[in-house]
Amino acid sequence: MLTQRYLIFFPGLTQKRFLLFTDPFHKQIYQLDLSQANPSPQGIPLNEEIHFPEYFDVDDKEQLLYYADSVENQIKVIDMATRKDDTVIQFGHGT
User: What Rg, from alpha-carbon coordinates, does the chain have?
Assistant: First the structure.
């Protein structure tokens, strides 16, 4: 069952009935509008260059997007209101 979440920080993208997913090869996080008959993925507009986003999570209350970049060995956060990013954790090699 899909749960409904309202994410107001993705300008130009739907805020109801959607799926978020990553494509590490294309270095992008996408949204798929599930209310359309033939939906096509829309890239989430980010100022930060993402290298290999494998996992992510959204704090919709605080308007934050967290993601793990496995090439940079980092967990980063992007404030979607200001588009500013910060490194939460920098892992060493082999961790």
Answer: 14
Angle at 29 between CA 19 and CA 1, to 5 degrees: 15
Which of 35, 45, 90 lies closest to 65, judged by CA? Answer: 45
Q: How far apart are CA 6 and CA 55, in angstroms?
A: 20
Query: Which tens digits make up the pLDDT trace of 12-60?
Result: 666 678 888 888 888 888 888 888 899 888 887 776 677 888 888 888 7
Are 82 and 69 in contact, with CB atoms under 8 Å apart?
no
Q: What is the pTM of this model?
A: 0.71
Neighbouring residues of 92: CB distance < 8 A, sequence distance ≥ 6: 73
Q: Which of 90, 41, 85, 95 is nearest to 69 (CA)?
A: 90
